Amino acid sequence: MSFNRRTGSLLTAVLALALVNGSQAQAVDAAKKPHREHIPTTTGAQIPFKQNSAGSIAFSAPSAWQAKEKDDENMLVKLGGDIAGSGTGEMSISRHVGEGKTSAEDLKELINRFFLAKLPNHKIIQEKKIFFGSSRKIEGILEDAYLDVNGAPIFQRIIFFEDPDGKTAYSLNFISTRDKIATMTPIFNRILLSLNFKGASQNGIYKSAAATRKESDSLNARYAPITIDYPRGWTVVENTGDNPVNIEGKNAAGKSAHISIHKGAMHPYWNIDDVADSLEKEHMTPRQSYHRINRSQKTFGSGGIQGIVQESTFKDDKSGAEIKQMTAYFNDDKNVYVLTMSSTDWKASEMHQAFHKMLASLRMQDRR
Question: Which of 125, 129, 154, 342 is the most buried (most CB within 10 A)?
Protein backbone atom coordinates (compact mmCIF):
# COMPACT_ATOMS: atom_id res chain seq x y z
CA MET A 1 0.00 0.00 0.00
CA SER A 2 2.64 2.47 -1.07
CA PHE A 3 -0.15 4.01 -3.15
CA ASN A 4 1.32 3.62 -6.60
CA ARG A 5 -0.38 1.93 -9.56
CA ARG A 6 0.72 -1.53 -8.45
CA THR A 7 -1.27 -1.24 -5.26
CA GLY A 8 -4.66 -0.46 -6.81
CA SER A 9 -5.81 -3.98 -6.05
CA LEU A 10 -4.48 -3.92 -2.48
CA LEU A 11 -7.23 -1.65 -1.26
CA THR A 12 -10.05 -3.39 -3.07
CA ALA A 13 -10.60 -6.18 -0.56
CA VAL A 14 -10.43 -3.97 2.50
CA LEU A 15 -12.31 -1.00 1.13
CA ALA A 16 -14.99 -3.29 -0.28
CA LEU A 17 -15.67 -4.37 3.30
CA ALA A 18 -17.10 -0.88 3.51
CA LEU A 19 -17.44 1.65 6.18
CA VAL A 20 -19.58 3.90 8.29
CA ASN A 21 -22.75 5.76 7.53
CA GLY A 22 -21.34 9.04 6.25
CA SER A 23 -24.00 11.46 7.35
CA GLN A 24 -21.43 13.39 9.39
CA ALA A 25 -18.61 13.35 6.85
CA GLN A 26 -19.24 16.81 5.46
CA ALA A 27 -20.62 18.49 8.59
CA VAL A 28 -19.35 22.05 8.97
CA ASP A 29 -17.86 23.05 12.32
CA ALA A 30 -19.40 26.52 12.30
CA ALA A 31 -17.79 27.54 15.58
CA LYS A 32 -14.30 27.11 14.17
CA LYS A 33 -14.84 28.07 10.54
CA PRO A 34 -12.65 31.12 9.82
CA HIS A 35 -14.31 34.40 8.92
CA ARG A 36 -12.77 37.73 7.97
CA GLU A 37 -12.96 40.92 10.00
CA HIS A 38 -11.00 44.13 10.57
CA ILE A 39 -8.90 44.58 13.72
CA PRO A 40 -10.65 47.29 15.81
CA THR A 41 -8.95 50.64 16.25
CA THR A 42 -7.55 51.21 19.75
CA THR A 43 -9.20 54.06 21.64
CA GLY A 44 -8.68 55.78 24.99
CA ALA A 45 -5.41 56.47 26.82
CA GLN A 46 -2.45 55.02 25.00
CA ILE A 47 1.06 54.30 26.20
CA PRO A 48 4.06 55.69 24.27
CA PHE A 49 5.06 53.72 21.15
CA LYS A 50 8.18 53.91 18.98
CA GLN A 51 8.96 52.82 15.44
CA ASN A 52 10.73 49.48 14.88
CA SER A 53 11.67 47.31 11.93
CA ALA A 54 12.34 43.63 11.28
CA GLY A 55 13.58 42.61 7.85
CA SER A 56 11.15 44.09 5.32
CA ILE A 57 8.52 44.81 8.00
CA ALA A 58 8.04 48.14 9.81
CA PHE A 59 5.89 48.44 12.93
CA SER A 60 5.44 50.33 16.20
CA ALA A 61 5.69 48.80 19.68
CA PRO A 62 5.67 50.08 23.28
CA SER A 63 8.65 52.33 23.96
CA ALA A 64 9.27 50.52 27.26
CA TRP A 65 9.82 47.17 25.57
CA GLN A 66 13.37 45.93 25.13
CA ALA A 67 14.94 43.59 22.57
CA LYS A 68 15.18 39.98 23.74
CA GLU A 69 17.28 37.05 22.60
CA LYS A 70 15.87 35.42 19.48
CA ASP A 71 14.70 31.83 19.79
CA ASP A 72 15.91 30.59 16.38
CA GLU A 73 17.27 31.68 13.01
CA ASN A 74 13.77 32.28 11.59
CA MET A 75 12.99 34.93 14.19
CA LEU A 76 13.55 38.48 12.95
CA VAL A 77 12.84 40.32 16.20
CA LYS A 78 11.68 39.70 19.75
CA LEU A 79 10.55 42.49 22.07
CA GLY A 80 8.95 42.55 25.49
CA GLY A 81 8.74 43.99 28.94
CA ASP A 82 6.53 45.56 31.60
CA ILE A 83 4.06 48.33 30.90
CA ALA A 84 2.96 50.42 33.86
CA GLY A 85 -0.73 49.88 34.55
CA SER A 86 -1.11 47.20 31.89
CA GLY A 87 1.11 44.22 32.56
CA THR A 88 3.87 42.22 30.96
CA GLY A 89 3.78 41.32 27.30
CA GLU A 90 5.98 40.03 24.51
CA MET A 91 5.96 39.92 20.73
CA SER A 92 8.09 38.30 18.04
CA ILE A 93 8.08 38.18 14.25
CA SER A 94 9.44 35.17 12.36
CA ARG A 95 10.02 34.70 8.65
CA HIS A 96 9.51 31.24 7.16
CA VAL A 97 10.98 30.45 3.74
CA GLY A 98 10.65 26.96 2.28
CA GLU A 99 12.02 25.44 -0.89
CA GLY A 100 8.91 26.66 -2.68
CA LYS A 101 6.45 29.40 -1.84
CA THR A 102 4.78 29.12 1.56
CA SER A 103 1.26 30.34 2.24
CA ALA A 104 -0.12 31.58 5.56
CA GLU A 105 -2.47 28.58 5.69
CA ASP A 106 0.42 26.14 5.14
CA LEU A 107 2.46 27.84 7.85
CA LYS A 108 -0.42 27.74 10.33
CA GLU A 109 -0.90 24.01 9.74
CA LEU A 110 2.78 23.21 10.17
CA ILE A 111 3.32 25.32 13.32
CA ASN A 112 0.16 23.99 14.97
CA ARG A 113 1.00 20.41 14.17
CA PHE A 114 4.69 20.22 14.89
CA PHE A 115 5.13 22.82 17.63
CA LEU A 116 2.05 24.24 19.32
CA ALA A 117 0.25 20.91 19.72
CA LYS A 118 3.17 19.70 21.84
CA LEU A 119 3.01 22.56 24.35
CA PRO A 120 1.46 21.88 27.79
CA ASN A 121 -2.34 22.30 27.84
CA HIS A 122 -2.38 24.13 24.50
CA LYS A 123 -5.97 24.94 23.49
CA ILE A 124 -7.08 27.05 20.54
CA ILE A 125 -9.95 29.31 21.60
CA GLN A 126 -10.60 31.19 18.37
CA GLU A 127 -9.47 31.36 14.75
CA LYS A 128 -10.50 33.91 12.13
CA LYS A 129 -9.29 35.73 9.05
CA ILE A 130 -8.50 39.40 9.57
CA PHE A 131 -7.44 42.58 7.81
CA PHE A 132 -4.75 44.55 9.64
CA GLY A 133 -1.73 46.81 9.12
CA SER A 134 -1.48 50.56 8.67
CA SER A 135 -3.31 50.12 5.36
CA ARG A 136 -5.98 47.96 7.04
CA LYS A 137 -5.60 45.72 3.98
CA ILE A 138 -3.02 43.09 4.91
CA GLU A 139 -4.81 39.75 5.11
CA GLY A 140 -3.91 37.21 7.78
CA ILE A 141 -5.15 34.36 9.94
CA LEU A 142 -5.51 35.15 13.65
CA GLU A 143 -5.34 32.34 16.19
CA ASP A 144 -5.85 32.80 19.95
CA ALA A 145 -4.89 30.05 22.37
CA TYR A 146 -4.33 29.21 26.02
CA LEU A 147 -1.32 27.22 27.24
CA ASP A 148 0.88 26.73 30.29
CA VAL A 149 4.53 27.82 30.51
CA ASN A 150 6.42 26.66 33.60
CA GLY A 151 3.08 26.27 35.35
CA ALA A 152 1.87 29.79 34.49
CA PRO A 153 -1.40 30.21 32.51
CA ILE A 154 -0.53 32.05 29.28
CA PHE A 155 -2.55 33.76 26.54
CA GLN A 156 -1.07 33.57 23.03
CA ARG A 157 -2.15 35.34 19.85
CA ILE A 158 -0.51 34.41 16.53
CA ILE A 159 -1.13 36.05 13.16
CA PHE A 160 -0.03 34.16 10.05
CA PHE A 161 0.40 36.28 6.92
CA GLU A 162 2.38 36.64 3.69
CA ASP A 163 4.46 39.29 1.98
CA PRO A 164 2.79 41.19 -0.92
CA ASP A 165 4.23 38.95 -3.66
CA GLY A 166 3.33 35.73 -1.83
CA LYS A 167 6.88 34.40 -1.65
CA THR A 168 7.35 34.36 2.11
CA ALA A 169 5.10 33.60 5.09
CA TYR A 170 5.40 35.24 8.50
CA SER A 171 4.18 34.54 12.01
CA LEU A 172 3.58 37.41 14.44
CA ASN A 173 3.40 36.08 17.99
CA PHE A 174 2.00 37.89 21.06
CA ILE A 175 2.13 36.52 24.62
CA SER A 176 0.85 37.68 27.99
CA THR A 177 -0.47 36.12 31.18
CA ARG A 178 -4.16 35.21 31.05
CA ASP A 179 -5.11 37.65 33.80
CA LYS A 180 -3.88 40.55 31.62
CA ILE A 181 -5.78 39.73 28.42
CA ALA A 182 -8.14 42.68 28.76
CA THR A 183 -5.33 45.24 29.11
CA MET A 184 -2.81 43.66 26.72
CA THR A 185 -5.12 42.90 23.78
CA PRO A 186 -5.59 46.59 22.82
CA ILE A 187 -1.78 46.96 22.87
CA PHE A 188 -1.40 43.91 20.62
CA ASN A 189 -4.05 45.30 18.27
CA ARG A 190 -2.29 48.67 18.13
CA ILE A 191 0.92 46.89 17.05
CA LEU A 192 -1.05 45.00 14.40
CA LEU A 193 -2.53 48.22 13.04
CA SER A 194 0.91 49.83 12.76
CA LEU A 195 2.52 47.07 10.71
CA ASN A 196 3.46 47.57 7.07
CA PHE A 197 5.90 46.23 4.49
CA LYS A 198 8.67 48.71 3.75
CA GLY A 199 8.11 50.49 0.46
CA ALA A 200 4.71 48.88 -0.07
CA SER A 201 1.88 50.96 -1.45
CA GLN A 202 -0.67 51.98 1.15
CA ASN A 203 -3.42 51.73 -1.49
CA GLY A 204 -2.87 48.12 -2.47
CA ILE A 205 -4.60 45.11 -0.94
CA TYR A 206 -2.29 42.33 0.23
CA LYS A 207 -4.10 39.17 -0.73
CA SER A 208 -3.37 35.64 0.33
CA ALA A 209 -0.76 34.01 -1.91
CA ALA A 210 -3.32 31.36 -2.80
CA ALA A 211 -5.38 34.11 -4.44
CA THR A 212 -2.53 35.86 -6.26
CA ARG A 213 -0.47 33.03 -7.71
CA LYS A 214 -1.32 30.02 -9.84
CA GLU A 215 0.95 27.10 -9.03
CA SER A 216 -1.63 24.37 -9.40
CA ASP A 217 -4.17 22.85 -11.75
CA SER A 218 -7.64 21.72 -10.74
CA LEU A 219 -9.01 18.23 -11.38
CA ASN A 220 -12.73 17.44 -11.40
CA ALA A 221 -12.42 13.65 -11.21
CA ARG A 222 -14.59 11.76 -13.69
CA TYR A 223 -14.99 8.58 -11.65
CA ALA A 224 -15.18 10.04 -8.13
CA PRO A 225 -17.20 13.02 -6.80
CA ILE A 226 -14.00 14.89 -5.96
CA THR A 227 -12.42 18.13 -7.12
CA ILE A 228 -8.82 18.78 -6.04
CA ASP A 229 -5.90 21.04 -6.91
CA TYR A 230 -2.55 19.41 -7.73
CA PRO A 231 0.90 20.76 -8.73
CA ARG A 232 0.81 22.42 -12.14
CA GLY A 233 2.22 20.35 -14.99
CA TRP A 234 1.93 16.94 -13.29
CA THR A 235 0.50 13.98 -15.23
CA VAL A 236 -3.00 12.77 -14.40
CA VAL A 237 -4.36 9.29 -15.19
CA GLU A 238 -8.02 8.56 -14.44
CA ASN A 239 -9.47 5.06 -14.17
CA THR A 240 -12.75 3.33 -13.46
CA GLY A 241 -12.93 1.07 -10.41
CA ASP A 242 -11.40 1.54 -6.98
CA ASN A 243 -8.42 3.67 -8.11
CA PRO A 244 -10.03 6.61 -9.95
CA VAL A 245 -7.07 9.03 -9.84
CA ASN A 246 -3.27 8.75 -10.17
CA ILE A 247 -1.07 11.85 -10.44
CA GLU A 248 2.70 11.84 -10.91
CA GLY A 249 5.27 14.60 -11.14
CA LYS A 250 8.50 16.10 -9.87
CA ASN A 251 9.50 18.99 -7.63
CA ALA A 252 11.87 21.79 -8.61
CA ALA A 253 14.83 19.55 -7.78
CA GLY A 254 13.58 16.84 -10.16
CA LYS A 255 12.54 14.44 -7.38
CA SER A 256 9.46 12.31 -8.12
CA ALA A 257 6.27 11.99 -6.09
CA HIS A 258 3.00 10.15 -6.57
CA ILE A 259 -0.56 11.12 -5.62
CA SER A 260 -3.52 8.74 -5.72
CA ILE A 261 -7.16 8.51 -4.73
CA HIS A 262 -8.79 5.18 -3.87
CA LYS A 263 -12.44 4.53 -3.08
CA GLY A 264 -14.55 1.71 -1.67
CA ALA A 265 -18.14 1.07 -0.66
CA MET A 266 -19.51 2.05 2.75
CA HIS A 267 -20.59 -0.33 5.50
CA PRO A 268 -23.27 0.73 8.02
CA TYR A 269 -21.36 -0.54 11.07
CA TRP A 270 -17.91 0.95 10.47
CA ASN A 271 -16.55 4.43 10.95
CA ILE A 272 -13.56 6.21 9.46
CA ASP A 273 -11.33 5.06 12.33
CA ASP A 274 -12.21 1.45 11.53
CA VAL A 275 -11.14 2.06 7.93
CA ALA A 276 -7.78 3.49 8.88
CA ASP A 277 -7.14 0.71 11.42
CA SER A 278 -8.07 -2.04 8.97
CA LEU A 279 -5.98 -0.71 6.11
CA GLU A 280 -2.98 -0.17 8.34
CA LYS A 281 -3.17 -3.63 9.91
CA GLU A 282 -3.74 -5.44 6.63
CA HIS A 283 -1.40 -3.61 4.27
CA MET A 284 0.96 -1.26 6.10
CA THR A 285 2.10 -2.98 9.30
CA PRO A 286 3.64 -5.89 7.35
CA ARG A 287 5.77 -3.51 5.26
CA GLN A 288 9.48 -3.40 5.92
CA SER A 289 10.34 -0.98 8.77
CA TYR A 290 6.82 0.44 8.81
CA HIS A 291 6.40 3.33 11.26
CA ARG A 292 3.33 5.45 11.85
CA ILE A 293 4.57 8.93 12.74
CA ASN A 294 1.19 10.37 13.69
CA ARG A 295 -2.54 10.17 13.10
CA SER A 296 -5.25 12.70 14.00
CA GLN A 297 -8.84 13.68 13.33
CA LYS A 298 -8.98 16.70 10.99
CA THR A 299 -11.47 18.99 9.30
CA PHE A 300 -10.25 20.02 5.86
CA GLY A 301 -11.23 21.10 2.37
CA SER A 302 -14.24 23.08 1.24
CA GLY A 303 -17.38 22.48 3.27
CA GLY A 304 -15.63 21.17 6.37
CA ILE A 305 -14.84 17.58 5.39
CA GLN A 306 -14.16 15.47 8.46
CA GLY A 307 -11.60 12.70 8.26
CA ILE A 308 -8.30 11.28 9.45
CA VAL A 309 -4.85 12.47 8.39
CA GLN A 310 -1.91 10.13 8.89
CA GLU A 311 1.83 10.31 8.25
CA SER A 312 4.02 7.22 7.98
CA THR A 313 7.25 5.82 6.60
CA PHE A 314 8.35 2.38 5.41
CA LYS A 315 10.99 0.86 3.15
CA ASP A 316 10.52 -0.21 -0.43
CA ASP A 317 10.52 -4.00 -0.66
CA LYS A 318 12.93 -4.05 -3.60
CA SER A 319 15.30 -1.10 -3.23
CA GLY A 320 15.15 -0.64 0.55
CA ALA A 321 14.68 3.11 0.08
CA GLU A 322 12.57 4.87 2.71
CA ILE A 323 9.17 5.96 1.43
CA LYS A 324 7.44 8.93 3.07
CA GLN A 325 3.65 8.82 2.86
CA MET A 326 0.86 11.24 3.77
CA THR A 327 -2.68 9.83 3.86
CA ALA A 328 -6.16 11.28 4.34
CA TYR A 329 -9.24 9.11 4.94
CA PHE A 330 -12.71 10.63 4.42
CA ASN A 331 -16.15 9.59 3.21
CA ASP A 332 -19.51 10.60 1.79
CA ASP A 333 -22.86 8.82 2.04
CA LYS A 334 -21.81 6.01 -0.31
CA ASN A 335 -18.05 5.56 -0.29
CA VAL A 336 -14.86 5.99 1.67
CA TYR A 337 -11.93 7.72 -0.04
CA VAL A 338 -8.20 7.48 0.61
CA LEU A 339 -6.00 10.32 -0.67
CA THR A 340 -2.27 9.64 -0.50
CA MET A 341 0.99 11.28 -1.48
CA SER A 342 4.24 9.33 -1.40
CA SER A 343 7.89 9.94 -2.28
CA THR A 344 11.33 8.61 -1.46
CA ASP A 345 13.34 11.76 -2.15
CA TRP A 346 11.28 14.74 -1.00
CA LYS A 347 12.01 16.41 2.31
CA ALA A 348 9.37 15.85 4.99
CA SER A 349 8.59 19.59 5.19
CA GLU A 350 8.06 19.75 1.44
CA MET A 351 5.72 16.75 1.57
CA HIS A 352 3.69 18.34 4.37
CA GLN A 353 3.32 21.61 2.50
CA ALA A 354 2.25 20.02 -0.80
CA PHE A 355 -0.12 17.54 0.84
CA HIS A 356 -1.88 20.09 3.04
CA LYS A 357 -2.33 22.41 0.07
CA MET A 358 -4.16 19.59 -1.69
CA LEU A 359 -6.28 18.90 1.39
CA ALA A 360 -7.23 22.57 1.65
CA SER A 361 -8.45 22.53 -1.98
CA LEU A 362 -10.47 19.31 -1.69
CA ARG A 363 -14.16 19.58 -2.57
CA MET A 364 -16.85 16.91 -2.61
CA GLN A 365 -19.39 17.16 -5.45
CA ASP A 366 -23.00 16.01 -5.16
CA ARG A 367 -23.58 13.91 -8.30
CA ARG A 368 -26.79 12.20 -7.29
Answer: 342
